[in-house]
Write a structure and sequence with these properties.
five-stranded parallel β-sheet, alpha/beta, two-stranded antiparallel sheet
């Protein structure tokens, strides 16, 4: 009736040592995380991304990835924002470690590609339940309870996860699973409410990965709900996360029964005595420090334009002519739906400033009017902005790692089997997709 463990998604993990250190410093009694946690934010540079690729130890990753102090990669923010690609990551690792295509590290890279595949097939339907979960939709609340938002449930693993998320913008994937499972299956909150809340605070927030992972945990994107108990936390997390004597300190059989009951488990009585932490504000427009302006047709009139957006922050194409105008774009239509906190705006804005001398913030109508004055407009496509980019620009697909799968695959295992068919090594995977890119 339930699932005890999930494959740990590489894209949704961060440097575990940083997350654990942050969590250790944020005690359950502290009102909010200190500003020194900004030091834990990954540097928004290509050099930092490449250093993390060079530091990957695939064997240690496979053995320890489920532990909060495990050898995870910290690459997620760089992948989300297009500084590096899955192909870059695997190619860099394979320079030092020859891997079989079925190696756990390669397998986990596949999860990100699979979620993008699901998004490409289903579009906006990924924001609705893909199929029925353990209970009818009406059984789940549509608002996240205040005690969860404030990191004051009285369940240490949940409160530590919330405070770490707010303090760093990062959260180990196992902690994300624990938090989502508690929200959905014990507190009976709809997965969409939790997913929308979490993605606004994640430095690596990717709509497909985040929302489909929540559906995986909820049981609306998988065959069974994901459940965990206090024993599981004690195995994989440091002591300050352990949660004996709470609603989680029961057997999996008991948790399976709770998941099928419509009544929520109340917050722990001790939670009412905790000092509540302050949820960081989410901003629907870039801070003034990022030096943006309104779209300006005169700035691009008669010129070739390369459009840089928040998910294409890698190296500029070598083929750009010397007269090409490189324009950075923050689209208000998107951010009104999906605001970010200050940390993510700074991370993206810093890299955007390196790449562009001109940065626009405006709605789709004003951007479209301005770009009509250009001689040509090109950009890299990304599903976050897919409703708008093709209206203005000739879009290029980013480099792919896995071959395209044309047949419908509702399960990762189906997709994985088809995308790696006939391949034995990671080098063959890289070579196969490289030949497709050349064509």
């Amino acid at each position: 009736m339930y699932r005890k463990h999930q494959f740990d998604l590489l894209l949704d993990t961060v440097v575990a040592e940083e997350a654990v250190e942050a969590a250790a410093l944020v005690s359950s009694a502290s009102p909010a995380a200190p500003t020194s946690f900004d030091l834990l934010t990954p540097l928004p540079t290509l050099a930092a991304a490449r250093e993390r690729i060079a530091a990957v130890r695939p064997g240690a990753y496979a053995r320890t990835r489920n532990s909060l102090d495990g050898a995870v990669t910290g690459l997620s923010p760089y992948l989300t924002h297009g500084m590096v690609s899955l192909r870059d990551v695997l190619a860099g690792v394979c320079q030092r470690y020859p891997l079989e295509v079925q190696h756990k590290f390669v397998y986990e890279l596949g999860w990100r590609a699979f979620y993008r595949y699901v998004w490409s097939r289903r579009g906006a339907r990924i924001f609705d339940s893909l199929h029925a979960g353990p209970l009818p939709e009406a059984a789940y609340a549509r608002e996240l309870p205040d005690d969860i938002r404030a990191g004051a449930t009285g369940v240490p693993v949940i409160d530590q996860a919330v405070r770490t998320l707010y303090a760093t913008g990062n959260l180990h994937n196992h902690a994300r699973m624990w938090l989502a499972s508690y929200v959905v299956h014990l507190r009976k909150v709809h997965w969409r409410a939790g997913a929308d809340w979490m993605v606004g605070h994640l430095l690596d927030g990717d709509l497909a990965s985040n929302h489909l992972s929540w559906q995986w945990v909820a049981g609306t994107g998988s065959h069974k709900p994901y459940l965990f108990n206090a024993e599981n936390v004690a195995k994989y997390a440091p002591p300050q996360w352990h949660s004996p004597g709470t609603a989680l300190d029961v057997s999996y059989e008991a948790l399976g029964e709770l998941a099928l009951q419509p009544d929520p488990v109340p917050a722990e009585p001790g939670g009412r005595r905790l000092v509540r932490c302050q949820e960081p504000a989410l901003l629907a427009e870039p801070p003034s420090s990022l030096d943006v302006c309104a779209p300006d047709a005169q700035a691009v009139a008669g010129r070739d334009v390369w459009l840089v957006h928040s998910w294409s922050l890698g190296e500029l194409p070598a083929t750009l002519g010397p007269e090409t105008v490189v324009v950075g774009l923050y689209l208000s239509d998107f951010h009104l739906l999906w605001p970010w906190d200050q940390r993510r705006w700074r991370f993206v804005g810093s890299r955007m400033r390196e790449l562009t001398s001109l940065r626009w913030h405006g709605d789709a109508a004003s951007v479209g009017r301005a770009l009509k004055a250009a001689r040509s407009v090109r950009c890299q496509l990304d599903p976050h902005l897919a409703p708008w980019l093709p209206l203005w620009a000739q879009c290029q697909n980013p480099p792919a790692l896995f071959p395209p799968v044309d047949k419908p695959c509702d399960l990762f295992t189906q997709w994985w089997r088809r995308s790696t068919q006939g391949l034995q090594t990671a080098a063959q995977l890289l070579a196969a997709e490289g030949r497709r890119d050349e064509r």
